[in-house]
Design brief:
The complex is a heterodimer of chains A (558) and B (205). With 558 residues, chain A is mainly alpha-helical. Chain A is 64% helix and 0% strand. Chain B has 205 residues and is mostly helical. Chain B is elongated. The chains are: A mainly alpha (558), B mainly alpha (205). At the A-B interface, helix 5, helix 6 and helix 7 of A face helix 1, helix 2, helix 3 and helix 6 of B.
Chain lengths: 558, 205
């Protein structure tokens, strides 16, 4: 019982990690079902079809398909990436990396996990209610998501689940911010923080500011659905009413920062790991930090680029376009710093490093395609096509998948005291990396050719018929992507039981979590360390005398 | 390095605590003053998040209102401003009672709890009256806005109420108690201010 309702940040981090990985699997299976329908429209799903869709003889019905892509997006964003990266690694890493014994508010931390568990329970239960789970897309645009467009209880439960998810996230944000502000070990100045911590810290600021906005949207949507209010339903001359576009404003006011909420931890982790495995200091540490802060600030004022086609004032649209384009300045700095870190490094191509380099590649393509969508004129054509789907999957799915896997391979030894298999890790990386690029770059291509997203059967339209072979190949790559995750599952659980016992510092790096045994004892540090240098002192000339190439953050040279 | 870091220490708007206190506070027996700062930072972030929530709700209200041809919409019954104002005074009084409780002990804490609970009861009766007067949710834009905002606000008052009740019941050392009382007071002041804003925005203008 004490282990289940633990207040130890390491245990809570693992709970979040397992929850997130489980939902990643669910969301992944849904993605493959979606791909099946797109490649073989209206044919019964093999093997699991009759089990999942008994009423339709194994065929994915239009309603089930709509539910599938809605819940796939919802699960991946709110119930997979958020728990894995922010809940899991945020919890595990932040106190260890800053030299603290636990979070500032351990009980709030526990409450955050159990609120998330309640949210997942609500979401899971919504699959089994009459009319099925939510079907209004992960963005749940009104009026599709109001009682008019979605009469069943599934959408209401979806609203509640997202709200609870938000409450959990805000609790986490309060904790992370306070922990980083208050509990840093002596000597751990802001510019000695590992970039991973910067990522989690800035993410938490965005979470604290913008998750409440979607909470408000969910609350009003809930009132509209349950109490008959009309915030998101257009009024008449007789009855002043609301505005469906208002929902989009509230949603994207949160939704765009959310993109950065998810990617900032990934950027932080990658910036650290590239330096660790290139065996040299992170190139332009301070520039990276300021670039991250710049992205955070800019992310608050660009959300309108999701709404170019809602008939907004062209003047307003142009401002949003300009601001969006400006975001590419700090992100380019970030990107160049990664390349600078790799340049002439003594690269150690371990599995975490492979995933980091993979992230640099996929994020590069994902980021560049974002520029097309930020442009109003191009967006008029590309809006709601698979180009958008490919773009955000390259960033969200590819980059976050890469970062989550890199983080898992990297911190697994510290979390569980055992090493993961490097050989299986590489066997996991290559098919994952290649397949996901085929899938998402393929989506860019069919989007460019004009295929809209969320179509049940694109081959029903003459002008999209010629894209069916493309969809078949994208789907095949998606199955390869899905199946290669079995290698990861095997590696994870086998290493958990039979992995090589991990030394305290298997990667030979200097951040504080590697100064304690693997796994760390209950209160992390026997004695709170005093930090004397930054996190990336690799290839350090002073270390050569000690017979190694790195210096710990708390290592005092005599 | 030090000048540099003290400058950057205000990032995110939170003042950097003195280094000495910070070093001590993650030890097993945390320093009281540093604990207080932890609570203050946490509460500041939390209130910031709550403020964003109400800001978003008020933004939605503003959009609905700005799109109406006239306000209040034609056919809306007059709003009982007086009753809503009295409720607001109860909430402000609860904050003052909690302030007194700092120096005068748990009796005033119970008074604060009672006033907050009375606020919720009065709100509930106000809702009942509004529904009877055809100003409930789903009857028109004014009813919708007031109901959504006040219901949400009431939930947040309920949260504060639970915190005060826990404080009243639990036997905790004086220092910890005072620290928690301070945080509860700040929070109750915050919900009182939010009520004031809602009252002015929805009921008065």
């Amino acid at each position: 019982m004490r282990r289940v309702f633990s207040t130890d940040h390491k245990v809570i981090g693992k709970q979040f990690l397992f929850l997130g990985l489980a939902f990643l699997a669910v969301g992944g299976v849904m993605a493959m079902l979606i791909r099946w329908q797109l490649a073989r429209p209206g044919q019964p799903v093999p093997i699991v079809g009759r089990l999942l869709f008994p009423g339709a003889g194994g065929v994915i019905s239009p309603a089930a398909y709509t539910s599938l892509f809605t819940m796939h997006g919802t699960i991946m964003i709110f119930f997979a990436v958020t728990p894995i990266l922010i809940g899991g690694f945020g919890n595990f890493c932040v106190p260890l990396l800053i030299g603290a014994r636990d979070m500032a508010f351990p009980r709030l931390n526990m409450l955050s996990f159990w609120t998330m568990a309640a949210a997942t329970a609500t979401l899971t239960a919504s699959f089994f209610v009459p009319l099925g789970a939510a079907q209004a897309g992960w963005t749940a645009y009104a009026t599709l998501s109001t009682a008019i467009g979605a009469p069943g209880p599934g959408q209401t439960m979806w609203t509640v689940a997202i709200y609870l998810n938000g409450v959990s996230t805000i609790m986490g944000a309060v904790n992370y911010i306070t922990t980083v502000v208050r509990l840093r070990a002596p000597g751990m100045d802001w510019f000695r923080l590992p970039l991973t911590v910067w990522g989690f810290f800035l993410t938490s600021i965005l979470n604290a500011l913008f998750v409440p906005v979607i909470a408000a949207a969910m609350a009003l949507l809930f009132f509209d659905r349950v109490f008959g209010t009309q915030f998101f339903i257009a009024g008449t001359t007789m009855r002043a009413g609301g505005d469906p576009i208002l929902y989009q404003h509230l949603f994207w006011l949160f939704g765009h920062p959310e993109v950065y909420i998810l990617i900032l931890p990934a950027w932080g982790i990658v910036s650290d790991l590239l330096s660790f495995f290139a065996r040299k200091p992170a190139f332009g540490y301070r520039v990276t930090v300021w670039a991250l802060i710049g992205v955070v600030v800019l992310s608050c004022v660009v959300y309108g680029h999701h709404m170019f086609t809602t008939g907004m004032s062209p003047l307003l649209g142009e401002s949003f376009m300009l601001l969006t384009m400006i975001i590419s300045v700090p992100t380019s700095l970030l990107f160049l710093n990664w390349l600078g870190t790799l340049w002439r490094g003594a690269l150690r191509m371990t599995t975490p490093m492979l995933f980091c380099v993979g992230l640099v590649f996929t994020f590069g393509i994902g980021g560049l395609t974002g520029l097309y969508l930020a442009d109003i004129v191009a967006d008029q054509y590309l809006h709601d096509t698979y180009f958008v789907v490919g773009h955000f999957h390259l960033i969200m799915a590819a980059a976050l998948l890469m970062a989550s896997f890199a983080a898992t391979y990297f911190w697994f030894p510290k979390m569980f005291g055992r090493m993961m298999s490097e050989r299986l890790g590489k066997l996991h990386f290559w098919p994952t990396f290649l397949a996901l690029n085929v899938v998402f770059i393929g989506q860019l291509a069919i989007g460019w050719a004009g295929m809209q997203r969320r179509l049940y059967d694109p081959s029903a339209y003459d002008f999209l018929k010629h894209l069916l072979p493309w969809n078949v190949w994208i789907s095949r790559a998606a199955y390869v992507l899905g199946l290669s995750q079995l290698v990861f599952v095997w590696n994870f659980f086998a290493s958990l039981r039979r992995g090589k016992p991990a030394p305290a510092n298997p990667w030979e790096v200097g951040t504080l979590e590697w100064t304690v045994p693997s796994p760390p004892p209950h209160h992390n540090f026997e004695e709170i360390p005093t930090v004397v240098r930054g996190p990336h002192e690799l290839g350090h000339p002073d270390a050569r005398a000690l017979g190694k190439d790195w210096l710990g953050q708390d290592e005092v040279l005599s | 390095m030090n000048a540099e870091t003290s400058k950057s220490g205000t990032l995110g708007g939170f003042p950097k605590p003195p280094a000495m206190v910070r070093g001590e506070q993650s030890s097993p027996a945390p320093h009281a003053a540093s604990r207080r700062l932890n609570g203050a930072v946490g509460m500041a972030v939390f209130i910031g998040a709550c403020a964003m929530l109400f800001a978003a709700l008020l933004f939605a209200y503003a959009v609905v209102r700005s799109q109406a041809a006239s306000w209040p919409p034609p056919g809306t019954p007059p709003f009982p401003r007086g009753a809503a104002a009295v409720n607001g005074l109860l909430l402000i009084a609860a904050g003052f009672a909690l302030r007194r409780a700092r120096s005068r002990g748990p009796a005033w804490l119970a008074v604060g709890l009672g006033l907050a609970a009375l606020f919720l009861l009065m709100q509930a009766s106000l809702w009942g009256r509004l529904v009877a007067d055809h100003l409930g949710p789903g009857t028109g834009a004014l009813g919708d806005a007031f109901f959504a905002l006040s219901a949400f606000h009431a939930l947040h008052v309920l949260g504060g109420l639970v915190a005060i009740a826990v404080l009243l019941r639990k036997r905790v050392p004086g220092e910890t108690r005072l620290r928690r009382l301070r945080l509860a007071t700040v929070y109750m002041d915050f919900v009182a201010v939010v009520w004031l804003i809602i009252y002015v925005a929805v009921c008065l203008i």
